[in-house]
Design a protein that fits this description.
BirA Bifunctional Protein, domain 2; YbaK protein; catalytic activity, acting on a protein (chains A, B); about 30% strand; cytoplasm (chains A, B); 3 domains; 31 strands; alpha+beta; nine-stranded mixed beta sheet; ATP binding (chains A, B); about 575 residues; aminoacyl-trna synthetase (chains A, B); 16 helices; homodimer; Rossmann fold; five-stranded mixed beta sheet
Chain lengths: ~575, ~575
């Protein structure tokens, strides 16, 4: 491709609204342009990388026997009503009415459509297991689209769905997809972790997120410094054997704590440490009050509260609700003497406290010398807090560290959630009707592109892994007015293409500095510069990743390039 | 791919709602399933054919230096308002509101988005010419979706846009795209014509439709039986030198024609022929009355009326409007004595009539012995009728014939319609600002698939051209319970795949008749049957297209298949 008429508009300045590296570089290197908030066009060089990632995805999916299909983006509302997600999905679901005023969803995912499809055409165990996938634009009306294509409203996704006769079959397919995803992200040159995650609104159990480790990201990953344990902190279990302090229990006391509300203020006012305090937070779980206790230096994990209570909706109580159920204002809430209407849950760390402090359910008052085993009644203890850096790893090996992560893939065991709701059954070997056992698997293709840049760049620009690079070689003609340089560049352009290399020829009438800066910005693996030594048949080869430069004979170019590419 | 777990649900019965061959066969052979009216899923075998067509499209587009990009399907309403199409496109444009109540269109085409894109990033003549394209789902809320994917509401399209500094440049790019389209449809095995067409709502001049000749279709093509002239009958010019009858003019007469209204009734009642009658139809063109006269055996072409009057909207007048402007009811309308407010246009064929008949603008009365050159005043003569079978070809060579056509491609010269509306200008060599000169080019990818089937099938099923076939070979194991047959089939399956052939292995436990019928229905170019002679190493080869069958040694399979495929 000739750069002179190629739509790759590089920008010298950093766009002001882009605050992460991949977003800045995708704009500066002319990969994307914004069309509306969270809606982007991929320019040719961005599109080439998307196609390369898609090809890797297809190869690894096909290798597992998955079948590519193509479902429509506009989906009848009836299917979403049957599954119950028409309401549940909320305002992230883009909705559309056709000319007959019928409701449709713009698909954020395709569980309903694919289940209806297989329900109609797969009736017998003989056709199962089956794994179908597609690569397609998806829609999610994000409240705050940001980070460029990392969180956009229209994005490219590979979604796959498996159908089995049994949960054992599902386990196997889940393993196969887990393996395919591992290979895909490895081939994309990504440093990632498969982390245990919450299944959220998808309605399944057993789920892993494939997280690209990064300095930015919307998820925090807790991982062990000594094992391969990794989990989203939303879900990471805490596995600590707390020990009871060897101290005598003192009589319970009520003390004045005028206008002293936060954990920090209480600890300081009562001259004790935060880990001697009990934090009491009132939640409303499916319209019922639930008081949750954790140690003062810990944080309540509402995903765990949701699981322990088997609740659908978990919200922190308002001040008004706190008054109604507890009789005091937040800041002075505690578990002693609350009405039976309020369920009390406490984290394991609370159970072993001796002579601790908690709110007294009266404005400006706290209890001192609180001993849960003596003073609390009807409390259910469980793992309710968020894991912290420095905690022992739940698998017993090593210590927990945190990293930010970009979610590029997600594998779910759905079970029969959708097949039961939509009636997708099959006849088993004994002729009885059973719901299909399903799995769901997604890869954010456009997001993977951004994640690759997030991990592969320097101050000068992008550094593409050869596996997904938009071109193999950036061939630069320093002086297009110089006949010898131009002729050698043109001749190399033909030769390299003839050898199967994908080449971007910088044939622009620009200053050499502009060309070299653009080459670093675009980040193709190999740069070949045809300059002053063209008359001697000598060109310069630069490896973008290492910065290593060599002068080589132009007639050795192909060999040397192929050899270098094999290691990039 | 193993058919036992492949999602290719063949149907024995003809679906009742499918009334054309391609729609029936796409349902029966398991290529598509309907998800809502005009909204389809492509199952794996349909998706494979789409991908094959896409690959051909990409190769031919890339060969012309076109650059692939990917624009979003959701498009800001502001862009459509700037171009004036937000209103003009009417209810076929699917509209969507986001969570902030902002309006978006679901793109039926991308002139606005691509123009805005190039406006922002291409400022100089040095970057031009440029040709960008994408392959993407498009949306059109058809009033009557029908014929399966031939007229659906979500469909796959390749759309391309060219940008030039001059109209001469546009002409060159138009030629290049015309040539690419010709190659694409040839490679898809289609019998088609590039026909001159009306540019409709696209707002350009010079446009060709690529029409696949067919027995069904929504367009009628007029073509010459002796030259390559072909045009949509909407637009085909009539180039006939009418001769005046050698007859004496008689005095104008008014006769009673009680309740005699239609051309047929009048001709019969007055014992004359239809070609001696003048048909007078009142139209409302942009709110002004226009009376159009054609010969009784001809039809008014309203596209021509639109062009001749330079009108935006051309509608046949209602009975009420006819009364208001002419003073009589339709059936008795004529040009003699109409008020000056009514513009009168007549087709060339009317001008030469001698002693003809027309309505007398009075209920139950007609004029006889009408001689336009004597009796009419203020009439403008032009080409206003639709071409007919038997007319001489407008290029002077041969006679016009009609065929139905399926539009699979369309090339337009847009000129500066969009660049001026959206302000997409460039600096020319002299530093002055000029609007880019644009072209727009579309291929219906999913529609092309249906058109291929429409031209390549028989009573048994589809007959895929090898270039787009979902698999090269259908390998059938007649008795899967027979060890020798199964082993030979499995061994051939590996060998053929190893030789780069794409093979569908029928490993189902079905009766041989079912397998053979499905093979004919699916229509893969070559069928290899492993049956009773497996023990002798002999298999049967059948060419789907010709029906030709041979027994061959299994170890010669690869060679023979490759040789046959080269001719299919």
């Amino acid at each position: 491709m000739r750069q002179s008429t190629y739509l790759v508009p590089t920008l010298r300045d950093v766009p002001s609204d882009a605050d992460i590296a991949s977003h800045r570089l995708m704009l500066r290197a002319g990969l994307i342009r914004q069309s509306a908030a969270g809606v982007y066009s991929f320019l040719p060089i961005g599109t080439k990388v998307l196609r390369n990632i898609e090809a890797i995805v297809r190869e690894e999916m096909d290798a597992k026997g998955a079948q590519e299909l193509l479902m429509p983006a506009i989906q009848p509302a009836e299917l979403w009503q049957e599954s119950g997600r028409w309401e549940a999905y909320g305002s992230e679901l883009m909705r559309i009415k056709d000319r007959h005023n019928r409701d449709f969803a713009l698909g954020p995912t395709h569980e309903e459509v694919v289940t209806a499809l297989l329900k109609a055409d797969v009736k017998s165990y003989k056709k199962l297991p089956m794994n179908v996938y597609q690569i397609q634009a998806k829609y999610r009306d994000e409240r705050r689209p940001r980070f460029g294509v990392l969180r956009s409203r229209e994005f490219l996704m590979k979604d796959a769905y498996t159908f089995d006769t049994s949960f054992e079959g599902l386990d196997k397919q889940y393993e196969a997809m887990y393996d395919a995803y591992t290979k895909i992200f490895q081939r994309c040159g990504l440093d990632f972790r498969a982390v245990v995650a919450d299944s959220g609104a998808m309605g399944g159990k057993d789920t892993h997120e494939f997280m690209v480790l990064s300095d930015v990201g919307e998820d925090t990953i807790a991982y062990s410094d000594e094992s391969d344990f990794a989990a989203n902190i939303e879900i990471a279990p805490v596995n600590v054997q707390y020990e009871r302090a060897d101290e005598e229990q003192q009589p319970l006391q009520t003390v004045d704590t005028p206008n002293v509300k936060t954990i920090e203020e209480v600890a300081s006012y009562l001259q004790t440490s935060e880990d001697q305090l009990i934090k009491s937070l009132l939640f409303i779980v499916d319209e019922r009050p639930v008081l949750v206790l954790v140690r003062g230096d810990h944080e309540v994990n509402d995903v765990k509260v949701k699981h322990v209570t088997d609740g659908q909706s978990v919200e922190l109580a308002t001040e008004e609700e706190t008054k109604r159920y507890i009789g005091t204002t937040p800041g002075f809430v505690g578990p002693i003497g609350v009405s039976e209407e309020v369920k009390v849950l406490a984290d394991h760390a609370v159970e072993v406290l001796v002579n601790a402090v908690c709110g007294a359910n009266e404005t400006d008052k706290h209890h001192k010398n609180v001993n849960p085993e003596r003073d609390f009644s009807g409390v259910q203890y469980d793992d309710l807090r968020t894991i912290q850096e420095g905690d022992p790893s739940p698998d017993g090996k090593g210590t927990i560290q945190f990293r930010e992560g970009i979610e590029v893939g997600h594998v779910f065991k759905l079970g029969t959630r959708y097949s039961e709701a939509l009636g997708a059954t099959f006849l088993d070997e004994n002729g009885s009707d059973k719901p299909m056992v399903m799995g769901s698997y997604g890869i954010g293709v456009s997001r993977t592109l951004a994640a690759i840049i997030e991990q592969h760049h320097d101050d000068q620009g992008i550094i593409w892994p050869a596996s997904v690079a938009p071109f193999d070689v950036h061939l630069i003609c320093v002086q297009t007015k110089d006949d010898e340089q131009r002729q050698l560049a043109e001749s190399l352009y033909s030769q390299l293409q003839g050898a199967g290399l994908d080449v971007l020829l910088d044939d622009r009438k620009e200053r050499p500095g502009v060309k070299f800066n653009d080459a670093d910005l675009l980040g193709l693996p190999i740069r070949i510069t045809v300059g002053k030594k063209a008359s001697e048949g000598i060109v310069e080869l630069k490896v973008r990743k290492s910065g290593e430069m060599d002068e080589i004979a132009s007639d050795e170019c192909i060999e040397v390039i192929q050899e270098r590419l094999a290691h990039l």
